[in-house]
C-alpha cells in the first residue's frame, strides 16, 4: 500500500477554511500516486479536525480517489520538542514500515522540528520517500543525498572506541573498583564498553556481589553522568504505591496527595534509573514499567497530561529471570527490553585474588567510622586471618564480608584481628543453615572445581589444626585411606602445612 503521512500545519487549516489548497491537499489530490491511506498527525486546532477530514475526503471523492483521510491526535509537550516529536513519529512509522507499506512523508507542513525528525527517521531507519510543495502548489519529490545510517554507525563506532580507550569518565568511574581477578577484569571491560552507549543494562549476580556499585560506575562513565541517577529497590515497592513512586501523582489524586509529585522517571529525566532487584516486581508492576519503557512517556496518577521522559534503565537481580519467564512469573517482553547489555557479577569465591585488597578497603572504611568512638584504636588484620577469609566460600559475598569484619572490629580484644576473631563472629552464620552445603547460585564466572577445592581446603586446615599437624591423624579425621592421599591434597591445594 502507498501511504502519505504528514503533520497538520496551520496553513493547511487556514486555507481549508477559505476552501483553498495547501500542502496536504495538494499532495492528496494532485500527486501522480493515488494514496491508499492518508495519515495526518496533529496536536493543535482540534476543533477543525472533523471539518478538515470531511473537506479533503470530499475533494478526493470528486476526483475518483479513495476518501482515506484520517487525522490522529498526538500528545506533544511542545511541537518543537525533538524527543516528543521523534517518539510520536516512531510510534506511527514503525508499524507501517513493518507491514511492508511504501511510505511517503510530507516535509512542508508542520514545524521545522517535525520536518527534521521526519527526515532523520524516514531516511535513517524506515526507508521512506519524501515530498514537498511550493507556494504555487507545485509538487517536488525530494531526494535526501545522505546515508544517515552508515554515517551514524561510522561516527558512533569512532566515538565509542575513543571513549573506551581513553575517556576520562571511564578512569574516574571504574578505577576505584577492585579488579585483580580475571572475572572482575572481564566485568570492568564489559561495563566500560556498555557505559558509553545508551543501551539498557541488566546486571545479574548473587546477593551482595556489588551490583549497585557497578550500576553507579556505569552511570558515572556514561554521557549522562551530569544528570541524575535514581535508585529504587523493586522488592520494597508497595503494590498500591507503584504508580505514584515510578510515575508521580497530581494533587488530589488520592487522600494523602496534598501536592503534585514527580515520580522517579521524571526525577531521572536525562539520566539513569537503577531498578534494583527487578525480579521482585509483581506482574501488574511489570506491565506498567514495560509501557513506560516502550512509549518513552508517562502519566502521573490522577493526571491526564502525557509527559515525555528520556531515561536510561539499568536493572539488577539475583533471581533467575530466564526460569521465571519459563514459569510465567516474569514477562518475556520486559526481559528483552532490559536484557540488551547483560553483565554477570562474579561471586566473591570466584575472585579470591581481589580479597586482600577488598579487606584492606573495607577495614579502612570501618576504622574511619569507628574512629568517632571514644578511646577507639585502629585495627589491622593478620595475614592468617586474610588467608582464612580467602578460604571461606562467602555465601553472602562482599556484603557478608563487610558485616563480618564490622563484628570482628567491634569484638576483637587486641589491635589485630585474628583467625579466632573471625571464627567467633562467623559462627552464628555458619550454624544458621547458610553453609556451603547449600547449592550456590550458578552465574557466569562460577568455577565448580574452585568451589569444591575451597571446601576441601577448609576441612583440611581444620583437621590439621585439630590433629596438631599430624598427617595420619588428620587423614583419619577426614575419612581418607592414608596420609599420602592427604599429602597430595595439601600439595594440590597449595596449603602450607606447619
Automatic annotation (TrEMBL):
<dbReference type="Pfam" id="PF00158">
    <property type="entry name" value="Sigma54_activat"/>
</dbReference>
<protein>
    <recommendedName>
        <fullName>Sigma-54 factor interaction domain-containing protein</fullName>
    </recommendedName>
</protein>
<dbReference type="InterPro" id="IPR009057">
    <property type="entry name" value="Homeodomain-like_sf"/>
</dbReference>
<dbReference type="InterPro" id="IPR027417">
    <property type="entry name" value="P-loop_NTPase"/>
</dbReference>
<keyword id="KW-0804">Transcription</keyword>
<dbReference type="Pfam" id="PF02954">
    <property type="entry name" value="HTH_8"/>
</dbReference>
<keyword id="KW-0547">Nucleotide-binding</keyword>
<dbReference type="InterPro" id="IPR003593">
    <property type="entry name" value="AAA+_ATPase"/>
</dbReference>
<keyword id="KW-0805">Transcription regulation</keyword>
<dbReference type="InterPro" id="IPR002078">
    <property type="entry name" value="Sigma_54_int"/>
</dbReference>
<dbReference type="Pfam" id="PF25601">
    <property type="entry name" value="AAA_lid_14"/>
</dbReference>
<dbReference type="InterPro" id="IPR002197">
    <property type="entry name" value="HTH_Fis"/>
</dbReference>
<dbReference type="InterPro" id="IPR025943">
    <property type="entry name" value="Sigma_54_int_dom_ATP-bd_2"/>
</dbReference>
<dbReference type="InterPro" id="IPR058031">
    <property type="entry name" value="AAA_lid_NorR"/>
</dbReference>
<feature type="domain" description="Sigma-54 factor interaction">
    <location>
        <begin position="177"/>
        <end position="410"/>
    </location>
</feature>
<keyword id="KW-0067">ATP-binding</keyword>
Amino acid at each position: 500500500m502507498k501511504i502519505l503521512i504528514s503533520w497538520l500545519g496551520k496553513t493547511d487549516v487556514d486555507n481549508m477554511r477559505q476552501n483553498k489548497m495547501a500542502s496536504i491537499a495538494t499532495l492528496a489530490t494532485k500527486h501522480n500516486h493515488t494514496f491508499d491511506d492518508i495519515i495526518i498527525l496533529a496536536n493543535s486546532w482540534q476543533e477543525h479536525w472533523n471539518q478538515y477530514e470531511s473537506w479533503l475526503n470530499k475533494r478526493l471523492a470528486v476526483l475518483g480517489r479513495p476518501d482515506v483521510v484520517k487525522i490522529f491526535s498526538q500528545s506533544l509537550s511542545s511541537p518543537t520538542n525533538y524527543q516528543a516529536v521523534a517518539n510520536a513519529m516512531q510510534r506511527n512509522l514503525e508499524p507501517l514500515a513493518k507491514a511492508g507499506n511504501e511510505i511517503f512523508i510530507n516535509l512542508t507542513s508542520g514545524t521545522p522540528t517535525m520536518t527534521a525528525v521526519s527526515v532523520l527517521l524516514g531516511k535513517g531507519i524506515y526507508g521512506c520517500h519524501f515530498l514537498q510543495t511550493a507556494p504555487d502548489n507545485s509538487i517536488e519529490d525530494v531526494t535526501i543525498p545522505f546515508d544517515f545510517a552508515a554515517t551514524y554507525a561510522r561516527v558512533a563506532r569512532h566515538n565509542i572506541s575513543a571513549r573506551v580507550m581513553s575517556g576520562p569518565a571511564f578512569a574516574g568511574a571504574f578505577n576505584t573498583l577492585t579488579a585483580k581477578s580475571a572475572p572482575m577484569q572481564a566485568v570492568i571491560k564489559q561495563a566500560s564498553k556498555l557505559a558509553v552507549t545508551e543501551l539498557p543494562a541488566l546486571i545479574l549476580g548473587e546477593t551482595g556481589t556489588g551490583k549497585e556499585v557497578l550500576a553507579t560506575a556505569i552511570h558515572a562513565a556514561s554521557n549522562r553522568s551530569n544528570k541524575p541517577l535514581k535508585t529504587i529497590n523493586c522488592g520494597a515497592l508497595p503494590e498500591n504505591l507503584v504508580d505514584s513512586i515510578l510515575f508521580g501523582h497530581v494533587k488530589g489524586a488520592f487522600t494523602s496527595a496534598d501536592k503534585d509529585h514527580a515520580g522517579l522517571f521524571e526525577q531521572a529525566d536525562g539520566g539513569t534509573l537503577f531498578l534494583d532487584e527487578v525480579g521482585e516486581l509483581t506482574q501488574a508492576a511489570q506491565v506498567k514499567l514495560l509501557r513506560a519503557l516502550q512509549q518513552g512517556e508517562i502519566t502521573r496518577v490522577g493526571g491526564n497530561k502525557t509527559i515525555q521522559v528520556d531515561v536510561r534503565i539499568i536493572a539488577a537481580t539475583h533471581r533467575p529471570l530466564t526460569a521465571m519467564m519459563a514459569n510465567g512469573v516474569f514477562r518475556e517482553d520486559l526481559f528483552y527490553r532490559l536484557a540488551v547489555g547483560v553483565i554477570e557479577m562474579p561471586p566473591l569465591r570466584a575472585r579470591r585474588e581481589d580479597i586482600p585488597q577488598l579487606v584492606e578497603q573495607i577495614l579502612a572504611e570501618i576504622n574511619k567510622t569507628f574512629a568517632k568512638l571514644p578511646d577507639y584504636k585502629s585495627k589491622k588484620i593478620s595475614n592468617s586471618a586474610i588467608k582464612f577469609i580467602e578460604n571461606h566460600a562467602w555465601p553472602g559475598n562482599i556484603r557478608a564480608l563487610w558485616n563480618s569484619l564490622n563484628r570482628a572490629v567491634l569484638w576483637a580484644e587486641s589491635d589485630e584481628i585474628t583467625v579466632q576473631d573471625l571464627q567467633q563472629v562467623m559462627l552464628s552464620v555458619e550454624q544458621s543453615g547458610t553453609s556451603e552445603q547449600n547449592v550456590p547460585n550458578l552465574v557466569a564466572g562460577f568455577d565448580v572445581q574452585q568451589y569444591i577445592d575451597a571446601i576441601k581446603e577448609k576441612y583440611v586446615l581444620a583437621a590439621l589444626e585439630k590433629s596438631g599437624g599430624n598427617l595420619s591423624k588428620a587423614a583419619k579425621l577426614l575419612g581418607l585411606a592414608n596420609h599420602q592421599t592427604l599429602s597430595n591434597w595439601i600439595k594440590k591445594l597449595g596449603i602450607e602445612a606447619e
